[in-house]
Design a protein that fits this description.
Blueprint lengths: L2 H27 L3 H32 L20 H9 L5 E5 L6 H14 L3 E6 L11 H15 L6 H4 L6 H16 L4 E6 L2 H4 L2 H17 L9 E7 L18 E4 L5 H10 L6 H11 L3 H12 L5 H7 L8 H12 L2 H12 L4 E2 L6 H6 L3 E4 L2 E4 L2 H10 L1
Parallel strand pairs: 1-4, 1-5, 2-3, 3-4
Antiparallel strand pairs: 6-8, 7-8
Helix pairs in contact: 1-2, 3-4, 5-7, 15-17
Length: 400
């Protein structure tokens, strides 16, 4: 039984008591009973109508509720903005030769922000394409030529253009030159409006060093062309990635040191309260504080908590109690992080030290702190490093 249920029952019982009291009083005085009865009946009808509206609202919320994970649809009422990230992106994407880099750990909302930036561009007359590298078969990364053909083919397909690789991917020119010409002589000729290229989850390319060096160097060269050369001036970029860039890229050939970087931080407490209200949840400050301590405002972890609670699957107290357990709702998320850490002994050792130390640790004492922060496991405040949230502290202190 929730606190709202208790409140409703208390209100109803209080109303019955009021009816008895006024009824008894008026019966004794024999002059105000009709008036009091009308007032009480009207109040009861108003209360029932209000609760009916609240119940209908909660039904609509539950019908819109989806299992947490993935991109939040552009028309969803449950997307919470994190100023100034959205405004920065919206202002930039309608300018020429923009390159926006949205950087945050996994499941922090990068893709959800990207689709909104692309929609904003379309609302201002631009064309947009969103290409996620999660959709690429592993075999695509076998060599640069095959990867760039896949890249060009997918862009053409999303633009509704015929695939002309067979005719245009000829000759002894290198793969990067062929790709550049495919854009310059075909795609950007067919698309006369400004084109915004959204590249989602480019982290997957980091795993293929040879392809990464050439592909990111190619993107940088296109960005430089866009400063003063047609038709490249009509193309902008939005790139999302989770990690710091640890592959060796020439400073002059990297797209990660130009343009504008946009970081997506965890939700603030006020943003969590706003999201919960959209789901029809009204909590006391003490309850909100407990949730923030548990998950640290991590968007995905907050969404999982709200999903569990609105579905009536568990109470906040139970969620806190089993959050770090294998049967808890965060098990898949936590296990993925643990597997990644176990594959990199130095990171596992570092996070173990951080989560088992009571006080924050000076940044200078943790060499791997920036990698751990890019994974979303720690936060740095005043040059002190600490776990992002109590959930991570409990889980990794027990499992590593």
């Amino acid at each position: 039984m929730t606190k709202q249920h208790i409140l409703d029952i208390s209100t109803f019982v209080g109303g019955l008591a009021a009816i008895w009291f006024f009824g008894d009083l008026c019966d004794k005085n024999n002059y105000c009973f009709p008036v009091a009865t009308i007032i009480i009946v009207l109040a009861a009808v108003g209360w029932i109508g209000y609760r009916w509206q609240q119940w209908q609202k909660q039904r609509r919320v539950r019908s819109d509720l989806t299992v947490p994970g993935g991109t939040v649809p552009v028309d969803s009422p449950f997307y919470v903005e994190r100023p100034p990230a959205e405004k920065t992106c919206y202002d930039l994407i309608v300018t020429d030769d923009a390159l926006i880099r949205i950087k945050a750990p996994r499941q922090m909302g990068k893709s959800s922000l990207m689709v909104r930036v692309l929609r904003h561009a379309e609302q201002h007359g631009h064309r947009s394409v969103c290409l996620s590298f999660q959709g690429a078969d592993h075999a695509i990364f076998a060599n640069l030529d095959q990867f760039l053909q896949w890249f060009c083919s997918n862009i053409a397909n999303q633009l509704g253009l015929p695939d002309e690789l067979a005719e245009r991917w000829q000759g002894v020119r290198g793969s990067k030159s062929k790709c550049t010409n495919y854009f310059e002589e075909y795609l950007l000729v067919q698309v006369t409006s400004h084109l915004v290229l959204g590249l989602d989850e480019v982290d997957l390319i980091f795993e293929h060093k040879d392809i990464a060096v050439d592909f990111f160097g190619l993107l940088r060269s296109w960005f430089e062309k866009g400063r003063n050369k047609e038709p490249w001036k009509r193309m902008s970029f939005v790139i999302t990635h989770s990690q710091e860039v640890y592959i060796p890229l020439d400073m002059k050939q990297s797209p990660f040191n130009v343009g504008t970087a946009v970081d997506l931080p965890p939700f603030t407490q006020a943003q969590v309260v706003d999201l919960m209200r959209r789901y029809g949840l009204v909590w006391q400050e003490e309850e909100i504080a407990k949730l923030m301590t548990l998950v640290g405002g991590h968007p995905y972890l907050v969404q999982v908590a709200i999903y569990q609670l609105t579905q009536g699957q568990m109470t906040l107290e139970k969620l806190i109690a089993i959050a770090s357990h294998e049967e808890g709702p965060y098990s898949d998320h936590l296990r993925r992080h643990r597997v990644n850490l176990e594959e990199h002994a130095e990171l596992a050792t570092a996070i173990k030290t951080i989560v088992t130390t009571v006080d924050p640790i000076p940044v200078r004492e943790v060499k791997e702190v920036f990698k751990l922060r890019s994974m979303g496991l720690v936060k740095v405040i005043d040059d002190q490093v600490m776990p992002l949230c109590e959930l991570y502290r409990r889980y990794f202190s027990e499992r590593l």
